[in-house]
Specification:
Radius of gyration: 18 Å
Strand content: under 5%
Oligomer: single chain
Mean pLDDT: 80
Order of helices and strands: HHHHHH
Shape: globular
Distance between the termini: 27 Å
Largest sheet: none
Helix content: 55-70%
Low-confidence stretches: 12-27
Number of domains: 1
């Protein structure tokens, strides 16, 4: 049973629940997400998790298999769990950039979904530029299996999902 939310004192959290992760925490309890950094951490983790779920479902929609964690771990020469850690850290970093920088540039856009779409496109473009830089630095990226066009469509869709989730989870004023 959730206790009705009350306005917390400045700088204090009034979360009263059983354990750290209760449904009210996971589903937009903004009293818990009181600072910009907290919002970015949660939005980055949730956005990356939803994007990763989308990537795993992509083959069922005819899009080639995409596993960013495997790709990152093979580039670095570490186990896959390190790739997952890096993938989530990248998602949190992008969410931090949304909270502290990007959100200021899109204040005129009223639709949160549209803000998320614009952010997702920006993240996709940045990711592609970074992939090109990494390719030049290490002398070749792991080979992708399947149609390059379908891989790009899947990547754009995944980043759009990420951008929308981050935009939905971040409040305008924290």
């Amino acid at each position: 049973m959730d206790i009705p939310a009350q306005k917390p004192e400045k700088g204090k959290c009034n979360f009263r629940g059983v354990g750290y992760l209760t449904p009210s925490f996971l589903f937009l309890n903004y009293n818990v997400m009181s600072t910009k950094i907290q919002q970015a951490l949660i939005a980055g983790m949730v956005g990356t998790a939803v994007m990763s779920f989308f990537m795993f479902m992509a083959p069922m929609m005819g899009i080639p298999k995409m596993n960013t964690a495997e790709m990152l771990s093979s580039i670095m020469g570490f186990p896959v769990f390190v790739g997952w850690f890096v993938h989530f850290m990248i998602g949190i970093t992008f969410a931090l950039s949304y909270v502290f920088f990007f959100n200021n540039f899109v204040k005129k856009i009223k639709s949160v979904i549209l803000k998320g779409i614009v952010f997702g496109i920006a993240v996709f473009i940045f990711a592609q530029v970074m992939m090109g830089i990494m390719d030049a630095m290490i002398g070749g990226m792991p080979a992708m299996e399947g149609s390059l066009v379908l891989i790009m469509i899947g990547s754009i869709a995944g980043h759009l999902v990420f951008g929308i989730v981050v935009a939905l989870l971040v409040r305008e004023k924290a």
